[in-house]
Amino acid sequence: FFQAEDGIRDVAVTGVQTCALPICSPNDKFVVKEASSEKNVDWGKVNKPFDPAKFDALHKKMMAYAASKELFVLDAYAGADQAYRLPVRIVTELAWHNMFVRNMFIPENDPVKQAAHAPQFTVIDIPSFKADPAVDGTLTETFIILSFDKKMVLVGGTEYAGEMKKSIFTVMNYLLPLKDTMPMHCSANIGEAGDTALFFGLSGTGKTTLSSDPHRGLIGDDEHGWSSHGVFNFEGGCYAKTIKLSAEAEPQIYATTQRFGTVLENVVMDPVTRLVDFDDASRTENTRCSYPLTYIDNAVPSGQGGHPKNVVMLTADAFGVLPPIARLSPAAAMYHFLSGYTAKVAGTEKGVTEPSATFSTCFGAPFLPLAPGVYAKMLTEKIARHNARVWLVNTGWTGGPYGVGSRMKIAYTRAMINAALNGELDTVAYKVHPQFNVEVPTTCPGVPDAVLDPRSTWPDAAKYDEAASKLAAMFVENFKAFEGGVTAAVKSAGPRA
Description:
15 helices, 8-stranded mixed β-sheet, 9-stranded mixed β-sheet
């Protein structure tokens, strides 16, 4: 279901879209391996190599297939800071996909500048075109292939709109470190005193929800850069999850879903009443809304902020054992950034039917073309240079694991984050968690003391200890891949198996 914006062919449309693939397919992504990328890209499971000749042949087939179709083109930018922005061109088969990228990127609306727009990267998205794996070298009919040499991304066989924005994010993750700028999979907001805060986290951990605070200005909800000037948004809009969205719990985001121009993706609509049901997950839990940043009343028009005073790392712990908030030392911050622990939420990725523990390096492994250490080193240096405080916040389960306990109340999480950002947690007592080796506050305004201690929320403390030890061991095992590139202080700052 979508609401089209005035100005596209002078038609306002309301209708139903059934996606060929309503959820992302990470195994169908490739990077062309050629002279310019071979020495820089961190090749492996995430960055799977693709043959340049196969790319050229597939591109030619796509263009022949699309020759008779009416296509939609958007010239725009990725990056609010003009010193670092990337001019892009997005070519789409579907009108609602063009609506989506108009929301998500920063369009060039000046006719004179638009005529002179010179895209440095082009995305071609033709969902009805399907690859032949035996001929084209793909794994399935679906493909997302990035070529740094041709400065082009080919997307086919999927209607999931998110692939377009994620592809350009990957490009920014490749280019910006060369300019001493940290690309980040995070949301960002700013307080009345000018204090910027970052929120790292994967899908479903609460980046969009928690950064949309009526008392703070929203810089952006998903992708940012941290340069010598400060923080800047890559995008011109937000892409929020809408599963179980309500006006009571998330009023700002809910309000955008009632506005003309917002795209609702994978959301189920009653064919009789024409009303959407945000609680319906019968197709997928990866239901989304895409809207311009200006639809948030307190959005920051420039999309920019100063150097962060606080950095929050969000995780949705399906085991229900991590504390709801903890303070991290600089060494622990690097440890948890490299670990990137959370739980994949059912329906977000193809093949995932129930939450499972996962470690996604730098809270964004699918988007990192360079080695993880490049990004971790940059973040650590910037945190130290600007004296930023770092927090680990669990928005997942409490009182037991998934299926037994309950999801942490948003009201409690907001209260904890507010206390961290305004300095109220600077003066309270802390205790070190025995398994996870992080500093946990013993009290927090607006939150019952018992909630802060995850062990006390479980009916059986012994079962908590067992589950916590298992997760700690998973951290230790996962971090073995990074031990050779970190100091002894970073290694010892992690959980204790």
